[in-house]
Amino acid sequence: xxxxxxxxxxxxxxxxxxxxxxxxxxxxxxxxxxxxxxxxxxxxxxxxxxxxxxxxxxxxxxxxxxxxxxxxxxxxxxxxxxxxxxxxxxxxxxxxxxxxxxxxxxxxxxxxxxxxxxxxxxxxxxxxxxxxxxxxxxxxxxxxxxxxxxxxxxxxxxxxxxxxxxxxxxxxxxxxxxxxxxxxxxxxxxxxxxxxxxxxxxxxxxxxxxxxxxxxxxxxxxxxxxxxxxxxxxxxxxxxxxxxxxxxxxxxxxxxxxxxxxxxxxxxxxxxxxxxxxxxxxxxxxxxxxxxxxxxxxxxxxxxxxxxxxxxxxxxxxxxxxxxxxxxxxxxxxxxxxxxxxxxxxxxxxxxxxxxxxxxxxxxxxxxxxxxxxxxxxxxxxxxxxxxxxxxxxxxxxxxxxxxxxxxxxxxxxxxxxxxxxxxxxxxxxxxxxxxxxxxxxxxxxxxxxxxxxxxxxxxxxxxxxxxxxxxxxxxxxxxxxxxxxxxxxxxxxxxxxxxxxxxxxxxxxxxxxxxxxxxxxxxxx
Length: 526
What we know:
This protein is mainly beta. About 10% of the residues lie in helices and about 45% in strands. The chain is built from seven helices and 28 strands. It has helices spanning about 1-10, 25-30, 35, 70-80, 140-150, 295-305, 340-345, and strands at about 20, 50, 50-55, 85, 90-105, 110-120, 125-140, 155, 160, 160, 170-185, 190-195, 200, 215-225, 225-240, 250-265, 265-280, 310-325, 325-335, 350-360, 370-380, 395, 400, 410-420, 420-435, 470-485, 490-500, 505-515. The protein has an 18-stranded antiparallel beta barrel. A two-stranded antiparallel sheet has the order 1-3. It starts with a helix and ends in a 9-residue tail after the last strand.
């Protein structure tokens, strides 16, 4: 009975929306809700995230039995918004955001993040959200090396400064996100903000992920019958201080179309295309040609001047529900492709493509709230790169798709279990990826920030060529959800990472205890 009631409620979802808000863009958060929305009979489009939920939706929160307290402030801290004012015409809520973590590997580590979120509704159609974080981090050596060699960019969190008042290695930085959403009617929704997006049903995305830093965007969503069509217009930044003046970045404009179609009760197909357009010689970024919401980008690219041609990507996303508790999913991304070279298997650099194949299994083997997931991701050398490196598929010194960039083969397997408020997560990663060789002028195609015209081999290119690195990560976490409203949790865990390339072997065992509001993804697993 409960299952059929949920199906009915979700099937009527688009007819009863009152002020839509973004669900947290967090794999941890979605793992608690995605079982029901992937059920056969639920015609929800699951590949473009964050989801838009009604601000009055309580399906997830009501699945937790409240923690009782006689003090209203303590009760709200453990079960609801800390401060909430609501009326038929408006809603306003404030919550603390934080991440306090103590850790140990070969040295003492910690995370000290404090922040706040403000969210609300005005009338029945306008919602808004804003969050702000202030951070000090002391990260593991491999992450510290990454930050120092990538323009001081902390993965997914922007550019840090090393405060001389603190001890060596401590990073100090701020970041913020926010949006305003206007629900025009049951078919159209417009959102303007500063944040991230994710396309796909897997842990990784080969089309667009939340791997990089926040960016300004305009998103227009059209949801009609079995179709969901998203137009995403964004401004990204290229920061490469080795070739640019210090502390000066260059802007680039991106336009993305994504059409998701539900076919029957089991199959979903998504079609993706994007264009990346960098500054021209006069400093212009924006081009009105790419604002058309329904036109194909490739004909536009060939119809305008050479200096204004962008970096185009095409993609395909698939999901097939095997049962109500299991489904297959996959992605294909094409940067450039030549069929004759593919059939000859000659390793042409022109065949730049990547893909994903995966499976999820909910309530695995009859155990309620046990989910299993495994996926394989790959990208050939030079994928996502461009002859003008500013137009690569990247933002703020990080790839916009997979954190390994290009020239890699990876398997990710995840087991998640939840019992009441207790959670347990086990993640296994094995990857092989390429790298450039110091002193070798050959471009092996793993670095998106190098022009593909420089030093490449025309033929004989293989995945993970060059300075081949083997990566193994085992990550285990045990947590207790304190407040489901902000995914506030206590968590203890251990991460073991081994990376071995042609010259060196790096080992790291990271033991941690954390108290945090887990509302976003940060990818340190590379």
